[in-house]
Specification:
heterodimer, A: alpha/beta, two-stranded antiparallel ribbon, 14 helices, B: alpha/beta, Rossmann fold, 2 domains, seven-stranded mixed sheet, binds thiamine diphosphate, binds magnesium ion
Chain lengths: 381, 326
């Protein structure tokens, strides 16, 4: 092949001088991590205002202890055949309680399935949660919570619902916020990205809480994504993302309250990644020892959210062992009462499976309902 | 009274709903200033504002899921999926949530949403723009699936769908979007859901169909009439839940039934109708039930689509077969 310069006529063109390596930086971001109480119960950052009040801290402590007491009982019920598969919130109490404590009554919570601590604070009863895992739809008919969504099992599918809820609030000019809680695993799903994206574009009153408990069943956080933080997934959608120590209930409560305040007043959405740890198996049907080194769990024990606040309260001289024992006894009694109610709940009528399908049972379904009724105890024959 | 096409009737119903109820919101891809790729939402954003008539990003899962959240808050969302070929990401939201929300919460929350989508073949569209997959939705308990076949029914059924307290998939046969005009009064009157429409009375054979195929079926009835065969034509309209009583009643009279649908045959809605006839109408049948449907093949690209879509000739042949049998 002829060389290009064989065509040269002597009038060679000299290109203008160029400098390389001058690409401009057009975007940059940072992710903040916040912790108020370190795992030793020491103040790591000047405490926010609410945490100066003993009553407020005790309420958080009490809610966490109640949640854990409930959790232990639920697992025991499952082990003795009195409950179906149950998803434990052990170790994640602060991340849920902090959210529940920060939310206002008129806000709407769209939980995944480990946010009992938030749900209880919002008026969902322990009996209802037991009914749910006990295989009874009535456990999603929250008597004291008309608008919160029920537990969501298909991962991340409730993120778009939160968008719709927030849109309705914004359209109606209400000072309310939708709060969507998801796991780390959920942030790999398209529904999550679609929801975060539009929340940014439309500046919706919506707060995403990513409960990063380091595992999606057996898939570790590191195996899920190369992203350094999950919080930064919000940045791509143009909304603020941040991390908090999810085992520091003060940090969760404070940062969620801040996010809610911003959202409530037209400041748009936020994503908060709460760093926590799933101390238990994924559910009672799981055996985490198949995939998770035991020493990892042991290592995590020192970060326990309840022990941490207990240490702080005790150090401040605000909380005696006697008071602590009394609190645990009180929580036991509450949980026992809920279990009693759960076990005493009258059986559900089989026909009820037809009765909430549509507002009014379509004619086409009447004969099916009647045939179920006529089967009595014998089941579907 | 204005003479309107089917797609204009859809537009009119949407406008009427937006007009009479501030809780109605309309959204989807390119439905704002562009008025939707078929112009079903033409002019609505200008009239009712960007807050109630909004363009969404390309996010089908979001569109369906967002509608559920809105509906739970008491809005009446009417969401558009641009083509049925892109509706499949919404199946998860529709099946796992929209259709279940009332039941899951024992009525505490419910889901008065509508998901509209143009569907069906015959317009020489690109790949993924011509399928009829209504049976996927018709299988879902807790859902309504409604298909209009004329401008009048598009107007009345869409209003009914929007004000129905439960989720409705509203599938619009795009081949007949502009095929015929009909006088449609903008009177805000809904038509009943969950019932078939008897389009023509007859005594020899019952032709059961819905959507665009109503057209071919009526043509077939005309041709049969020329040969002295009296065909009754039923437009099912709500294919879930299905009004089998009307179909059974008709077949009790005619003793013969041909089911016509554009969708593939296996597990199509026609199979459900045939099963109902076998269970409850066998004694009145003089001849085996016939199905005239799309084939159990991939919907071909448009060079072959006319070979795929049922024709009035195929319907006539099937009807005659039922008459030969007895
Ligand atoms: C869409 C979907 N895929 C798979 C599952 C099965 N599953 C249940 S929980 C889970 C892991 C979820 O992990 P994460 O979001 O981190 O929540 P965590 O359980 O850790 O709280 C999986 C895969 C599911 N429920 N939904
Ligand atoms: Mg996880």
């Amino acid at each position: 092949m002829a060389r290009a310069d064989s065509f040269a006529d002597g009038n060679s063109i000299t290109p203008p001088p160029r400098q390389f390596g001058q690409a401009r930086r057009v975007a940059h971001f940072e992710i903040k991590y916040l912790q108020y109480l370190n795992h030793l119960g020491e103040v790591a950052e000047e405490l926010p205002e609410f945490a100066q009040e003993r009553g407020q801290l005790l309420a958080l402590y009490r809610a966490m202890v109640l949640t854990r007491t409930f959790d232990k009982k639920a697992i025991a019920l499952q082990r003795t055949g009195k409950l179906g598969t149950y998803a434990s919130s052990l170790g994640q109490e602060a991340a849920a309680v902090g959210v529940g404590a920060a939310m206002a009554k008129q806000d709407v919570l769209l939980p995944a399935y480990r946010e009992y601590g938030a749900q209880f604070l919002r008026g969902v009863s322990m009996t209802e949660i037991l009914l749910y895992w006990g295989g009874d739809e009535r456990g999603m008919n929250y008597g004291a919570q008309a608008e919160d969504f029920p537990i969501c099992v298909p991962i991340a599918t409730h993120a778009p619902h939160a968008v719709g809820v927030a849109y309705a609030m914004k359209l109606r000019g209400q000072a309310r916020v939708a709060v969507c809680a998801l796991g780390d695993g959920a942030t790999s799903k398209g529904d999550f990205y679609e929801a975060v994206n539009i929340a940014g574009a439309w500046q919706l009153p919506l707060v995403f809480i990513v409960n990063n408990n380091q595992w999606a069943i057996s898939v570790s956080r590191a195996a899920q994504t190369r992203a350094e933080t999950l919080a930064q997934k919000a940045i791509a959608a143009g909304i603020p993302g941040e991390q908090v120590d999810g085992n520091d209930v003060i940090a969760v409560r404070e940062r969620v309250a801040q996010a809610l305040d911003t959202a409530r007043h037209g400041g748009g959405p936020r994503l908060i990644e709460a760093l926590t740890y799933r101390m238990g198996d994924h559910t009672t049907a799981d055996d985490a020892s198949r995939y998770r080194p035991g020493d990892e769990v042991e290592q995590q024990r020192q970060y326990d959210p309840i022990a941490r606040l207990h240490k702080y309260l005790a150090r401040c001289g605000e909380w005696s062992q006697q008071q602590d024992d009394a609190l645990y006894a009180e929580c036991e009694a509450k949980v026992d009462a809920a279990v009693k109610d759960y076990l005493a709940t009258p059986a559900v009528a089989p026909e009820s499976m037809f009765d909430y399908l549509y507002e009014k049972l379509p004619v086409a379904l009447r004969t099916q309902r009647e045939s179920l009724s006529s089967q009595g105890e014998s089941g579907n024959g | 009274m204005a003479e309107l096409t089917l797609v204009e009737a859809v537009n009119l119903a949407l406008a009427r709903a937006l007009e009479i109820d501030p809780d109605v919101v309309v959204f989807g891809e390119d439905i704002g200033i562009n008025g939707g790729v078929f112009r079903a939402t033409l002019g609505l954003q200008a009239r009712y504002g960007k807050e109630r008539v909004m363009d969404t990003p390309l996010s089908e899962t979001l569109i369906a899921g967002m509608a559920i959240g809105m509906a739970a808050q008491g809005l009446k969302p009417v969401a558009e999926i641009q083509f049925m070929g892109f509706i499949y990401p919404t199946l998860d939201q529709i099946l796992s949530h929209a259709a279940r929300l009332r039941n899951r919460t024992r009525g505490r929350l419910h889901c008065p949403m509508v998901l509209r989508a143009p569907y069906g073949g015959g317009i020489h569209a690109p790949e993924h723009h011509s399928e009829s997959t209504e049976a996927l939705f018709a299988h879902i308990p807790g859902l309504r699936v409604v298909i209009p076949s004329s401008p009048l029914r598009a107007y009345g059924l869409l209003l009914a769908a929007i004000f129905d307290p439960d989720p409705v998939i509203f599938l619009e046969p795009k081949r007949i979007y502009r095929m015929v005009k009909e006088a449609v009064a903008d009177d805000g009157q809904a038509l009943p859901l969950d019932v078939c429409f008897r389009l023509r009375d007859g005594s020899d054979v019952t032709l059961v169909t819905w959507g665009a195929m109503t057209h071919e079926t009526l043509q077939a009835a005309d041709r049969l009439a020329q040969e002295g065969i009296s065909a009754e034509v039923i437009d099912v309209a709500t294919i879930k839940p299905i009004d089998s009583a009307t179909i059974l009643e008709s077949v009790a009279k005619t003793g013969r039934c041909v089911i016509v649908h554009e969708a593939a045959r296996a597990c199509g809605v026609g199979a459900e109708i045939a099963a109902q006839l076998a269970e409850h109408g066998l004694m009145s049948l003089y001849a085996p039930v016939q199905r005239v449907t799309g084939y159990d093949t991939i919907m071909p690209l448009f060079r072959l689509e006319q070979h795929y879509l049922p024709t009035s000739a195929r319907i006539v042949t099937a009807a005659k077969r039922t008459l030969e049998a007895a």
